[in-house]
């Protein structure tokens, strides 16, 4: 293994899964027995291409992240790299000892003690008996399992199980470490410990390949990233850039989804049909539309600062709610109102033209109005909008409750509902590394400017 | 086939660990522990003792005495074979997690089953020898025992590889197998001596490789006079062929195993 050889070299890798349908399987067994062509008849009924045309290299000593939606082929790729399955086409070379953290503690036998399981698991992962003995104390100490190591594994909690599994796998001391979302297990302290250990691996120049939904982790730890979409490489290269491309793509998909849902809003008065999540009480909040329609809201659009219709925003962006109305007869008593709710029905904000002391003079025919929210100071989540036109005493002309929604997306996972524009300052006594430049921008809500 | 042998040899440490784990786990929590290796065939003996002592009185062969001991010589190795195949057929499905989540040569699982049961057999053997000593039957031919054991090991391994890989694709096989093994038991001269059989039945029995394996055990342990060299050699050839076929099929299906279990 020369230093400039890549640790992982994948060229045009494809993996086609074959499905054997059970009905046909029985037929196969029957015909196999009858005709004696057992081997020939073991042919698949259906194929499914999990990966296609995937090429990439992982430099020795680098940390490589693989991102993508569920079902995009990430786990398949990992199984190929671990050697659990073989590529259908293409070539895949992994240099050095591989340890895969795919499922922690896979292969633990519940009836025997942790001690014996560590020994067997270590051997399974490629250690010799001596190596297991040498590393045993370290493994147990890392897993913090000194007190329980002689108890049968079936008495362990799932956290203990995962800890011990991780400890064994990480002490195999691989040249290439494959990690599949396993850091989601265990409590926070242990997760941090795992991350520290992975950091140590990086410092020691080991190659790490991480498959994760945690974009923050990938951005923070990886030197390169690969984005899989539908089994193909959608993008690869600098993690920041790849993650941005991925987020934009995901946001686009959600945009289409939310816009599609809005197209199905009931056009007439009456309670809305029960949608998903509707059965939950939501603090008594139910989508619907009612009113006498003397003034009718004929259209609602959510626009970004460039006037494009969008349903996914990042904090700090400008959101314009644009209403079109039609008043058959002239009216003098009218109020336009707006309400903003979280997905579980908490009123975030509400206002109307009457509260804000506009004097209604008259309205007739077709027209429009806009409400511009110039700084969308919200945390990540889905938000529902009420728009209404009614009399000063509240008698509705047209009330659209929760029929419009939009989503706020952010990589900063702050909590609550409202995100005030903010910044941190520290005196010299507190030493903190500033977040990556990008994260700083997020805090100030300028994510879209990228 | 040689690559298969090499692979199994390379993983001998893992096989060893898994076999000892299996043996430990099997009897953990049971009062009698490893004695079960011996009690199992003994209980089977008891059943046949009752059947032939009270139900089919006078049906058993008078040419072998003591009949009990003769029966024991056949039942002990049969138990090894039968348990290996019955457990081995489901071993890949039971160990599916390993195949799917850990880089793990799948053939280790049926192999471990066969070796675990071999150990049970070897644990039971001293009891059988003790009985033989007690009856004054122990003879020098006992030293030849490694031969039929080796033949049986290869035969059982081959068949276990075959059925375990096929069971992953045809789960029905596991249900059929119990009955096949039952029939096979009676088609092997265990509860009756081979020498008593004549004519067509004898020629049918001759085709069963296990007949010669079991007869070898019986001759070496019980008769003290081993004559079925040719039969055992034939069984050895069949065993090697079966092992090759089992390995080949296993290799052919290897990639589908992790996806199908």
For the record, what CATH class of the largest domain in chain A applies? Answer: Alpha Beta
> What is the ordering of alpha helices and beta strands of chain B?
HHHHHHHHHHHH
Q: What's the count of strands of chain B?
A: 0
Which range does the strand content of chain A fall in?
25-35%
Distance between the termini of chain B: 24 Å
Oligomer: heterodimer
Name the beta content range of chain B.
under 5%
Helix coverage percent of chain A: 25-40%
From N to C, what is the helix and strand string of chain A? EHHEEHEEHHHEHEHEEHEEEEEEEEEEH
Outline of chain A? elongated
- Please report the total strand number of chain A as a whole number: 19
Structural class of chain B: mainly alpha
Radius of gyration of chain B: 19 Å
Mean pLDDT value of chain B: 87
Task: Profile the largest sheet of chain B.
Answer: none
Average pLDDT figure of chain A: 79
Descriptive report:
The complex is a heterodimer of chains A (about 450) and B (about 260). Chain A has about 450 residues and is of the alpha/beta class. Chain A is built from ten helices and 19 strands. Helices cover about 25% and strands about 30% of the residues of chain A. The longest helix of chain A has 25 residues, at about 240-265. Chain B is mostly helical. Chain B has one domain (about 1-260). Chain B has twelve helices and no strands. Chain B is globular and about 55 Å long. The chains are: A alpha/beta (about 450), B mainly alpha (about 260). At the A-B interface, helix 1 and helix 4 of A face helix 2, helix 6 and helix 12 of B.
């Amino acid at each position: 293994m020369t230093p400039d050889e890549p640790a992982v070299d994948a060229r045009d890798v494809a993996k086609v899964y074959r499905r054997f349908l059970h009905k046909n399987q029985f037929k196969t067994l029957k015909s196999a027995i009858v005709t004696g062509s057992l081997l020939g008849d073991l042919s698949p009924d259906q194929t499914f291409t999990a990966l296609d045309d995937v090429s990439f290299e992982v430099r020795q000593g680098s940390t490589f992240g693989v991102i993508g939606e569920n079902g995009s082929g990430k786990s398949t790729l990992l199984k190929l790299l671990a050697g659990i399955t073989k590529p259908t086409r293409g070539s895949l070379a992994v240099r050095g000892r591989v340890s895969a953290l795919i499922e922690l503690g896979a292969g633990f036998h519940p009836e025997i003690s942790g001690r014996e399981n560590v020994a067997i698991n270590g051997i399974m992962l490629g250690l010799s008996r001596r190596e297991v003995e040498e590393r045993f104390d370290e493994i147990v100490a890392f897993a913090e399992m000194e007190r329980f190591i002689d108890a049968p594994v079936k008495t362990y909690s799932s956290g203990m199980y995962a800890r011990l599994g991780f400890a064994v796998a990480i002490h195999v001391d691989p040249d290439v470490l494959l990690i599949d979302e396993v850091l989601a297990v265990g409590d926070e302290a242990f997760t941090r410990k795992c991350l520290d250990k992975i950091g140590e691996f990086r410092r020691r120049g080991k190659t790490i390949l991480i498959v994760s939904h945690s974009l923050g982790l990938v951005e923070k730890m990886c030197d390169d990233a690969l984005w899989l979409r539908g089994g193909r490489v959608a993008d690869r290269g600098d993690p920041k850039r790849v993650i941005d491309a991925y987020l934009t793509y995901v946001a686009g998909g959600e945009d289409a989804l939310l816009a599609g849902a809005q197209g199905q809003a009931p056009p007439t008065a009456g309670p809305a049909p029960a949608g998903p999540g509707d059965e939950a009480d939501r603090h008594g909040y139910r989508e619907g539309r009612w009113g006498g329609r003397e003034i009718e809201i004929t259209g609602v659009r959510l626009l970004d600062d460039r006037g494009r219709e969008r349903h996914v925003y990042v904090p700090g962006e400008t959101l314009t709610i644009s209403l079109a109305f039609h008043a058959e007869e002239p009216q003098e008593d009218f109020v336009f109102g707006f309400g903003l709710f979280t997905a579980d029905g908490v009123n975030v904000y509400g206002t109307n033209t009457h509260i804000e002391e506009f004097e209604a003079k008259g309205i007739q025919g077709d027209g429009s109005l806009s409400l511009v929210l110039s700084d969308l100071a919200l945390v990540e989540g889905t938000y529902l909008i009420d728009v209404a036109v009614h009399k000063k005493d509240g008698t509705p002309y047209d009330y659209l409750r929760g029929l419009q929604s939009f989503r706020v997306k952010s990589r900063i996972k702050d909590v609550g509902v409202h995100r005030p524009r903010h910044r941190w300052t520290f005196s010299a006594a507190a030493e903190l590394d500033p977040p990556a430049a990008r994260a700083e921008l997020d805090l100030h809500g300028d994510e879209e400017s990228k | 086939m040689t690559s298969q042998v090499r692979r199994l040899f390379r993983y001998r440490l893992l096989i060893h660990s898994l076999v000892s784990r299996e043996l430990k786990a099997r009897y953990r929590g049971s009062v009698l522990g490893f004695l079960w290796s011996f009690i199992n065939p003994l209980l089977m003996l008891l059943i046949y003792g009752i059947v032939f002592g009270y139900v089919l009185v006078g049906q058993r062969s008078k040419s072998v005495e003591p009949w009990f001991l003769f029966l024991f010589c056949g039942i002990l190795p049969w138990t090894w074979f039968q348990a290996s195949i019955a457990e081995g057929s489901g071993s890949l499905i039971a160990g599916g997690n390993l195949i799917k989540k850990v880089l793990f040569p799948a053939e280790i699982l049926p192999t471990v089953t066969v070796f675990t049961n071999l150990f049970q057999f070897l644990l039971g053997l001293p009891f059988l020898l003790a009985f033989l000593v007690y009856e004054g039957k122990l003879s020098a031919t006992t030293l030849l025992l490694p031969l039929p054991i080796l033949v049986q090991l290869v035969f059982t391994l081959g068949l276990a590889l075959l059925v375990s890989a096929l069971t992953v694709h045809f789960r029905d096989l596991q249900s059929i197998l119990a009955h096949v093994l039952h029939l096979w038991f009676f088609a092997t001269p265990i509860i009756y001596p081979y020498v008593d059989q004549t004519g067509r039945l004898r020629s049918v029995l001759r085709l069963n490789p296990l007949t010669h394996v079991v007869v070898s055990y019986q001759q070496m342990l019980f008769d003290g006079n081993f004559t079925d060299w040719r039969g055992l050699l034939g069984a050895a050839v069949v065993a090697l062929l079966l092992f090759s076929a089992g390995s080949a099929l296993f290799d052919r299906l290897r990639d589908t195993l992790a996806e199908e279990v």
